[in-house]
Amino acid sequence: MMVYREFENGWMLAMNDEAGKKVVPDSLFRFGRQFDGHPVVDFWQRDGASGLRGFLPHETENSVRAFLLDLGFTEVRRYDPNGDPELETIAPMLRPGR
Questions:
Q1: Cβ contact 27:44 at 8 Å
Q2: pTM of the full predicted structure?
């Protein structure tokens, strides 16, 4: 059963159980995108949340990476503005047995 959990740092994510320990399968993120000249993290969850999120003043790329990996996200290579596919296109290619 999927539930949404809001974290103290402002993230609202789809979790795979009521305990809220791990995100739903096929949860991906990457760095390298910009919005209004500021770095953002690009994230996507199957049947869940997706979008771009800026960094809070105390956050770094490393702290956001550690937070998302601990929840079960998979990091994919940095965004390349010269033609990288969207995360929902990448997710099926990363599934086991494919």
A1: yes
A2: 0.87
